[in-house]
Amino acid sequence: MTDTETTTFVATIDDLDGAEGTAFGPSSWREITQDDIDTYADLTGDDNPIHVDADAAAASPFGTRIAHGMLTLGMVVRHLREIYRITDTGTGIVYGFNRIRFPAPVPSGGRIRVRGTIANVTAIDGGVQVALELVYELEGGGKPVTVAELVLRHLR
User: Fold this and answer.
1) Quick check: is 44 in a domain?
2) Are 135 and 114 in contact (CB under 8 A)?
3) CA nearest 147: which of 118, 104, 108, 111?
4) What's the predicted TM-score (pTM) here?
5) In total, how many domains does the chain have?
6) pLDDT digit string, tens, across residues 45-83
7) Is 82 inside any structural domain?
8) What is the C-alpha separation between 60 and 151, in angstroms, rounded?
9) Is the pLDDT score of 2 beyond 90?
10) Whole-angstrom Cα distance, residue 52 to residue 108?
11) In a domain, 13, yes or no
12) Which of 73, 84, 88, 103 has its Cα between 20 and 30 A from that of 110?
């Protein structure tokens, strides 16, 4: 797959058996605006100056305001809807995360996208549990901005 090609994973619950190792993505680029960052800071109370104060952020090691790691992580649904779909699930839920890391910052106005790989599929009562290894990329960046293993449950 080249950098401009996108693979969308579309399957039924039964198709997930044997899908481990399947890669999908990337999603489209999505900008994280300063309005997004300010709204997240207001909602969560995380008003660390590196996120919301231009002067303080300019004096920080980042040199500019940056998005909250958890804001970036929380954008997962918008990206996944584009590149990962289970067609016969009655209910799908985020069950949790096994690992989350934020190796590089996302500057205000930066654009991110997500790539994924199906890491694990486990049968559960009424459906399946799927672990997705996700890598969030910053346009023009050299390192991933977020790496996480998301656990989803697809119930019939």
Assistant:
1) no
2) yes
3) 104
4) 0.93
5) 1
6) 999 999 999 999 999 999 999 999 999 999 999 999 999
7) yes
8) 34
9) no
10) 10
11) yes
12) 84
In a domain, 124, yes or no: yes
Residue with tokens 């920080």: 60
What CATH number is given to the structural domain containing 103?
A: 3.10.129.10
Helix, coil or strand: residue 136: strand
Token code pair at residue 122: 């486990």
Residue 26's alpha-carbon distances to 37, 45, 131, 152, 155, in angstroms, are 23, 31, 17, 19, 25
Condensed to tens digits (0 to 9), the pLDDT of residues 86-130 reads 999 999 999 999 999 999 999 999 999 999 999 999 999 999 999
Backbone angles phi, psi at 91, to 5 degrees: -145, 135
Domain residues for 16? 9-32+77-155
13-28 CB burial, b ≥16 within 10 A, e <16: beebeeeeebebbbbe
